[in-house]
Amino acid sequence: MAIGSGIFLIVVGAVLTFAVNVTVEAVNLDAVGWISMISGAVAIIISLIVNAQSTRTTHREIHQDRAGNPPKPPSAGTRDL
Hints:
By secondary structure, the chain is mainly α. It has two helices and no strands.
């Protein structure tokens, strides 16, 4: 999701910087375009870092037996639903 929004920001920034030739007194569209492209690149980099970290994590299941409930033996070929 963040990669897609980063690409969108880069495209919008490139259009504002290189394709729009309108002059607005209150806003510098070239600066807005460059800021948008930089923020899109940062969003993509952060997204890739977060995705790389999530693939290196490990998960464990902890089963705790309580004193009053003896553990059930696994049933062969059936699944508990």
